[in-house]
């Protein structure tokens, strides 16, 4: 009798755990539906509950957000596996590009002034309003994405390794899973080349020549700081739905006043160019009139 009661209690505990995790209610007239989700690489976001009938032991393994943040290795393995499948299949894709010019931050996250000269600061604010721009592009369903998404011209999307990663975190929100990979700072150019389409900083600074009536620039010193790749997947379908690339280029350069600003002479300047490129993927085959 005692053994039967123990077994019954264990079974009821398992049921209670399952229903609480699934967010389901249960009564005598209703049976909860069970959805089985298959993933290629399970993450410690999943709650594992098992019942050993022989030993009457219920195993419940849960992970707090703090514990999950410390699990960079399995999260990064999940990231690499899924992001390199993004170019496979026939998904349609939309790309959007945003650029902005801002201030460099120190180790405490405090913003540093672009320069000590108010006229130079005002000139850079003006440059930000008209020099940098947004853009976009799209690829239709069935197109080859190898020439559309980074790394353009390659079959893969990322060749990053764990040694180049500062942190990989995961957050689940319903069926959406968001993986954020942060590169070590400063990231080497050869590290950036493994996941990002590179931009020539000299080409970017060409746009500064629009202000050559007021200033000229020396050769810059650049570093890649706090760069991230954010991968979004659908937990139920295990498909990539979005990739976002955030590339911060910190620039140190000497600016010499020209024309109306010639009295400024040469001033050291530091600023951040942030380039954010976002890709959204749709894996559903578009319907045609023939399908209707």
Name the overall outline.
elongated
Order of helices and strands: HEEHHEHEEEHHEEEEE
Mean pLDDT: 76
Let me know the number of strands: 11
Give the termini separation.
63 Å
Unreliable parts:
1-41
Specify the structural class: alpha+beta
- Write down the Rg: 26 Å
Helices, by number, come to 6
Number of domain modules: 2
Strand content: 25-35%
Helical content (DSSP H or I, runs of 4+): 10-25%
The biggest beta sheet reads: 9 strands, antiparallel
Structure description:
With 292 residues, the chain is of the alpha+beta class. The chain has two domains: 2-62, no CATH class; 72-291, no CATH class. 21% of the residues lie in helices and 32% in strands. It contains six helices and eleven strands. It has helices spanning 2-22, 65-69, 72-83, 118-130, 189-192, 201-205; strands at residues 48-52, 57-61, 92-102, 135-139, 165-173, 176-183, 215-217, 221-224, 228-234, 239-257, 266-282. Strands 3, 4, 5, 6, 7, 8, 9, 10 and 11 form a nine-stranded antiparallel β-sheet that branches. The model is unreliable at 1-41 (pLDDT under 50).
Notable characteristics:
two-stranded antiparallel sheet, 32% strand, 2 domains, alpha+beta, 292 residues, nine-stranded antiparallel sheet, single chain, disordered N terminus
